[in-house]
């Protein structure tokens, strides 16, 4: 039987256990079958040796020894399991692993190609040290297209070295996962099934995993084996349908359903989209979001999303294809994908020694639907808090320590989420308001402010005179739009800010 990981291969036989991992940590890996009758637990060291292995015929041998109070000094490294190996999970794992924690990352699909537009802001490339080959295309031109097909070109304010990065998620995620592994993360290719605290809230978490085995790229590649893993802290980075969130009863969020077709178009048409992305607004393509054509490696991603009328998503998709018209005519659909996008943070994001990050926590911005950067950033911030508060993995942490990440996150990003929520409510409420929105995008000042805050994720200090002009311009656009037509806006809510 093999209870192994890509980095950690633990073979448990009747009397022997071996492990082949570089590093300097020790782990406790349990094989659940061995609890029944045989009751065997195997402790292994990342140095390559077996620390202990025992079998007992009686009760399980965890007991009070396993209960450790917050802040207590540990005689072994803090054990952290990260569920999910997307940007949030990989970045959390990297941070924990390089800072003294014994880190596990459980990912069900190593070749996962997350349904996604793949657009990332420029600052992510530097901040997360991404190599140029991760970026398929550098987009420095955008077209905003209004309901009446009025086009506004955006991008003239960009400097020559400024662009939006277009990535393929299978490439980006694989890179981030491999880097986390290089720093010492034990990567387990398996499906996280559940977890429990057998010794109460200060005891360890025992995770149940269907282990697909080393080298498996997707489920079914290899026979599943069940394994258990005992850890101190759990980070839920398992996306919008998070199982970890359900287990800690984190509460629901409103969500959009986003739909995307990857369409291969001929070279001439592809040339048109070489460094250009298009955003279409109108109640034909979405009642509360936008439709997009994003250039990818050798094709375009064409998609849309909605919160308020999910059953009509295919009708909106037909409309976005129609609006793109001749520019994608004759293209071959090579992949169809759909996935939920969270609309606001969950009511609870931390419970005891469990924290949620990325989509599992609900960190996608309204209006733009952007989540990759926020996933990576929240994963990193959470990993940093775990590492710092545990004194590089030397002391037990608790809920108060994990809240350091949450407080920092909310302080830094709450205003961004709030502003984008308001913008969505104001400008996506009717076709008339959308026309006004596109008109406003003609302003160089609006373009610079929008791009700067997207590309660099900082609140850009404005020019007071231009701000006043913008305010009057906005009011005028909205009044003009409302004079044309007013409809009831979508009942999209940001969700109340609650203490997690
Ligand atoms: C159609 C669409 C287009 C989008 N376009 C963009 C865009 O252009 N730019 C942008 O910034 N954002 C975009 N987003 C949002 C973005 O995709 C997400 O915000 C981002 O992927 C969140 O990253 P994450 O790591 O939190 O979660 P995910 O990327 O969802 O990763 C979760 C990982 O956990 C794994 N997992 C889940 N459950 C388990 C389990 N039980 N056991 C083991 N592993 C598990 C999954 O396999 C997955 O690899 C888009 C979303 C959609 C749906």
UniProtKB/TrEMBL annotation:
A single BP term in Gene Ontology: chlorophyll biosynthetic process
Domain of life: Eukaryota
Record carries keyword DNA damage: no
Catalysed transformations (reactions): phytyl diphosphate + 3 NADP(+) = geranylgeranyl diphosphate + 3 NADPH + 3 H(+)
SUPFAM superfamilies per record: FAD/NAD(P)-binding domain
Boundaries of every Digeranylgeranylglycerophospholipid reductase catalytic domain copy: 254-335
Alphabetized GO MF terms: FAD binding; geranylgeranyl diphosphate reductase activity; geranylgeranyl reductase activity
Pathway annotation from the record: Cofactor biosynthesis; tocopherol biosynthesis; Porphyrin-containing compound metabolism
Record key words, sorted: Chlorophyll biosynthesis, NADP, Oxidoreductase, Photosynthesis
Entry's Gene Ontology cellular component terms: chloroplast thylakoid membrane
The UniProt record lists the keyword Oxidoreductase: yes
EC code: 1.3.1.83
Gene3D superfamilies, per the entry: FAD/NAD(P)-binding domain (3.50.50.60)
Task of the protein: Catalyzes the reduction of geranylgeranyl diphosphate to phytyl diphosphate, providing phytol for both tocopherol and chlorophyll synthesis.
Protein name: Geranylgeranyl diphosphate reductase, chloroplastic
Source species of the chain: Chloropicon primus
């Amino acid at each position: 039987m093999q209870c192994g990981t890509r980095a950690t291969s633990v073979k448990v036989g009747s009397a022997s256990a071996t492990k082949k991992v570089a590093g300097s940590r020790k782990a406790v890996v349990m094989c659940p079958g061995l609890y029944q009758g045989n009751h065997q637990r195997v402790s292994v060291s990342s140095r390559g040796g077996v620390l202990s292995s025992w079998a007992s015929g009686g009760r399980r041998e965890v007991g009070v020894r396993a209960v450790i109070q917050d802040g207590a000094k540990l005689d072994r490294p803090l054990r952290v399991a990260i569920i999910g190996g997307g940007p949030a999970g990989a970045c959390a794992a990297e941070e924990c692993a390089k800072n003294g924690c014994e880190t596990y990352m459980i990912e069900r699909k190593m070749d996962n190609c997350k349904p996604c537009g793949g657009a990332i802001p420029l600052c992510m490339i530097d901040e997360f040290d991404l190599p140029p080959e991760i970026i398929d295309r550098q987009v420095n031109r955008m077209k905003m297209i209004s309901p009446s097909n009025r086009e506004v070109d955006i991008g003239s304010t960009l400097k020559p070295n400024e662009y939006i990065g277009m990535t393929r998620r299978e490439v980006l995620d694989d890179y981030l996962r491999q880097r986390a592994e290089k720093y010492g993360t034990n990567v387990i290719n398996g499906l996280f099934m559940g977890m429990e605290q057998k010794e109460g809230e200060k005891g360890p978490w025992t995770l149940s995993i269907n282990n697909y085995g080393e080298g498996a790229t997707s489920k079914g590649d290899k026979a599943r084996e069940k394994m258990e893993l005992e850890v101190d802290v759990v980070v839920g980075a398992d996306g919008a349908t998070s199982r970890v969130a359900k287990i800690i009863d984190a509460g629901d969020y409103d969500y959009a359903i986003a739909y995307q077709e990857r369409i291969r178009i001929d070279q001439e048409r592809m040339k048109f989209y070489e460094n250009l992305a298009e955003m279409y607004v109108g109640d034909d393509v979405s009642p509360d979001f936008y439709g997009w054509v994003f250039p990818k490696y050798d094709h375009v991603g064409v998609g849309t999303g909605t919160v308020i009328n999910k059953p009509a998503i295919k009708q909106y998709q037909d409309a976005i294809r129609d609006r793109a018209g001749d520019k994608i005519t004759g293209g071959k659909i090579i992949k169809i994908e759909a996935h939920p996008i969270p609309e606001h943070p969950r009511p609870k994001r931390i419970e005891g020694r469990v924290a949620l990050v990325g989509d599992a926590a609900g960190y996608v911005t309204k209006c733009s639907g952007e989540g990759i950067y926020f996933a990576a950033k929240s994963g990193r911030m959470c990993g940093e808090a775990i590492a710092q508060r545990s004194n590089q993995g030397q002391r037990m942490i608790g809920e108060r320590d994990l809240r350091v990440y949450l407080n920092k996150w909310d302080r830094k990003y709450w205003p961004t989420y709030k502003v984008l929520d308001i913008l969505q409510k104001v400008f996506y409420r009717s076709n008339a308001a959308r026309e006004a929105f596109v008109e406003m995008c003609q302003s160089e000042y609006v373009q610079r402010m929008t791009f700067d805050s997207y590309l660099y994720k900082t609140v850009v200090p404005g020019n007071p005179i231009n701000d006043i002009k913008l305010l009057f311009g906005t009011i005028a656009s909205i009044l003009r739009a409302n004079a044309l037509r007013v409809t009831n806006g979508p009942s999209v809510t940001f969700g109340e800010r609650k203490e997690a």
